[in-house]
């Protein structure tokens, strides 16, 4: 089984990430004839259309400015046709890579945040006693390895599970997501999906939950990963990608075998009623070993329980089995460490967390023990002779 890396965050150019805003406008369909050349100087008497409400891959201001250069025959056509025509021109002069993806993504977010009306404003601000179960909160406040160990089970090495969210919080978050999706459908907003592997679900960071999720990572995930995932940057997590995924008959059904674009992944089941949908884990691997075989002790399957969290390394290979009935929604928080990623560039041995690097290292050690022993025996034989 060959395995992919799920990625997310920004609209992709090469990675095949979620939908690109404005991607439906693939090729300009308005033919450019000799009469339709741009004017050499702008038409100052013309008032351009506004393009602010469209999801485009160039700034709306560029379209408004360029419109003054359109040939007079183009000024009377529909706004859509003008967009197609101008986009065709822009694409010729600005290569894909030069368009500032981060800037476009900021604009995309801004557009949602300034138009979408949240249903439950309470969940946009971190409110620990309302969000978390008391046992979890106490363990975090005590902040010792022992207090954390006490609330966790580690059913397989590197997979930690614990009670995290109160049912009330899960319900509010589910209803907020539903409200957001209704808004998306009503205004026919073209949204970006959470990553390359899910067709359903929504990026929570895109509609106002980024600040709350940042606190969730800094104050509640980092203290845990500092203890249990120190060797993959667990103590220096500094950014996140937060989203929900939805599984069921009319949603995504299962999720293929993959690794996450994260150092540490928090995966919390929010509900609702469902059967199936188990997570399967198959060992942690570095880039070089990502497609190597699984050893029997690495095989582990986990059944989701609403409100319960699973925390694992992003490089822990996993997938989700089919949700066979009902509807399952999970919150995912991919936590990243820029420091770890920088350091990783200069390392070759990841035996502190890659199962295969560790196996190779042990094999090398064993071979060197065997070699030393036979060398000693040889010398002993020489001295006797
Ligand atoms: Zn390795």
UniProtKB/TrEMBL annotation:
<feature type="region of interest" description="Disordered">
    <location>
        <begin position="1"/>
        <end position="51"/>
    </location>
</feature>
<dbReference type="InterPro" id="IPR006620">
    <property type="entry name" value="Pro_4_hyd_alph"/>
</dbReference>
<dbReference type="InterPro" id="IPR005123">
    <property type="entry name" value="Oxoglu/Fe-dep_dioxygenase_dom"/>
</dbReference>
<protein>
    <recommendedName>
        <fullName>Fe2OG dioxygenase domain-containing protein</fullName>
    </recommendedName>
</protein>
<dbReference type="GO" id="GO:0031418">
    <property type="term" value="F:L-ascorbic acid binding"/>
</dbReference>
<keyword id="KW-0479">Metal-binding</keyword>
<dbReference type="GO" id="GO:0051213">
    <property type="term" value="F:dioxygenase activity"/>
</dbReference>
<dbReference type="Pfam" id="PF25238">
    <property type="entry name" value="OGFOD2-like"/>
</dbReference>
<feature type="domain" description="Fe2OG dioxygenase">
    <location>
        <begin position="238"/>
        <end position="337"/>
    </location>
</feature>
<keyword id="KW-0223">Dioxygenase</keyword>
<keyword id="KW-0847">Vitamin C</keyword>
<keyword id="KW-0408">Iron</keyword>
<dbReference type="GO" id="GO:0046872">
    <property type="term" value="F:metal ion binding"/>
</dbReference>
<feature type="compositionally biased region" description="Gly residues">
    <location>
        <begin position="11"/>
        <end position="21"/>
    </location>
</feature>
<keyword id="KW-0560">Oxidoreductase</keyword>
């Amino acid at each position: 089984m060959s395995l992919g890396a799920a990625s997310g965050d920004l609209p992709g150019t090469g990675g095949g990430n979620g939908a690109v805003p404005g991607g439906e406008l693939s090729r300009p369909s308005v033919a450019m004839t000799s009469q339709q050349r741009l004017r050499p100087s702008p038409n100052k008497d013309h008032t351009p259309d506004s393009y602010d409400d469209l999801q485009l891959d160039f700034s709306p201001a560029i379209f408004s400015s360029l419109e003054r250069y359109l040939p007079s025959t183009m000024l009377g056509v529909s706004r859509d046709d003008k967009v197609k025509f101008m986009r065709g021109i822009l694409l010729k002069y600005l290569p894909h890579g030069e368009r500032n993806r981060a800037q476009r993504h900021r604009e995309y977010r801004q557009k949602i945040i300034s138009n979408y009306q949240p249903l439950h404003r309470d969940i946009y601000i971190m409110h620990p006693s309302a969000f978390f179960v008391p046992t979890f909160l106490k363990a975090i406040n005590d902040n010792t390895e022992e207090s954390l160990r006490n609330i966790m089970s580690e059913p397989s090495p590197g997979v930690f599970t614990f009670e995290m969210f109160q049912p009330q919080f899960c319900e509010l978050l589910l209803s907020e997501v539903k409200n957001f999706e209704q808004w998306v459908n009503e205004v026919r907003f073209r949204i970006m999906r959470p990553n390359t592997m899910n067709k359903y679900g929504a990026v929570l960071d895109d509609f106002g939950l980024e600040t709350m999720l940042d606190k969730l990572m800094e104050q509640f995930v980092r203290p845990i990963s500092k203890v249990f995932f120190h060797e993959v940057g667990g103590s220096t997590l500094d950014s996140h990608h937060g989203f929900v995924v939805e599984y069921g008959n009319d949603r995504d059904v299962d999720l293929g075998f993959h690794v996450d674009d994260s150092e540490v992944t928090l995966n919390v089941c929010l509900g609702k009623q469902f059967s199936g949908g188990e997570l399967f884990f198959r060992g942690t691997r570095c880039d070089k070993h990502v497609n190597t075989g699984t050893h029997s002790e690495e095989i582990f399957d986990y059944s989701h329980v609403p409100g319960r969290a699973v925390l694992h390394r992003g490089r822990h290979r996993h997938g989700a089995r089919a949700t066979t009935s009902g509807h399952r929604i999970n919150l995912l928080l991919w936590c990243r460490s820029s420091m770890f990623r920088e350091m990783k560039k200069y390392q070759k041995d990841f035996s502190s967390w890659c199962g295969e690097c560790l196996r190779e290292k042990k094999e090398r050690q064993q071979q060197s023990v065997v070699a030393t022993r036979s060398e000693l025996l040889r010398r002993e034989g020489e001295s006797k002779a």
